[in-house]
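Posting for a labmate who doesn't have an account.
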Amino acid sequence: MPKEVPLSRLIWACRRGMLELDVLLMPFAKEEYSDLSEQHKLYFQRLLTCEDPELFAWFMGHEKCPDPQLAEIVDVILKRVKI
């Protein structure tokens, strides 16, 4: 089993170069991350390694994420975070 990543580290990784991503990712990490399944936590951690333009395109619906696991966590985030 992978080592647990501290929530504070994940919240720091949610600070992106685009305000639109900050508004999605930071509240999700603070309010919803702890309730995720272990699998979704891993997907979220992987998602944070993606580049901002990719994330922006996926979250805004401009492109479909080609990775099914990342697409799943994008959907989870969009359903849970109210903007």
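Reply:
Got it, the structure tokens are right above this. The longest helix spans residues 19-31.
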